[in-house]
Amino acid sequence: MIPLSAYIAVSAVLFATGLLGVLIRRNFIIVLMSVEIMLNAATINLVAFSHYLEAMQGQIVALFIIAIAAGEAAIGLAIIIVVFRGKISTNVDEMNLLKW
Q: Per residue of the chain (100 residues), what is the pLDDT tens digit?
């Protein structure tokens, strides 16, 4: 059986990778992928603790997180398509299309 600390370590590495991707990269697509990695890290923690505590609430919340991640990916891709059609850069610093 895999110990709980192994799941926590994997989740911490994934979350740190996602956080670095959000903070360092300036490409909009990579920022969205990094947010997805961070959500997956949270899901791993929820499922691991749910299994360890023998409760189903963590797994139910993990399903909601997966649904939110799918919606976020769809909206993010729609924004990227609008930006590409307008011939605007995908650099997060240069994109001010959605500002008032």
A: 899 999 999 999 999 999 999 999 888 888 889 999 999 999 999 999 999 999 999 999 999 999 998 998 899 888 878 777 776 666 776 666 556 5
CB 62 within 8 A of CB 46: yes
3-state secondary structure of 75: helix
Is residue 96 within 8 A of residue 41, CB to CB? The reply is no
CATH architecture of 4-85: Orthogonal Bundle (1.10)
CB atoms within 10 A of CB 37: 18
**Domain boundaries defined on the chain:** 4-85
- At 68, give phi and psi (nearest 5°): -65, -40
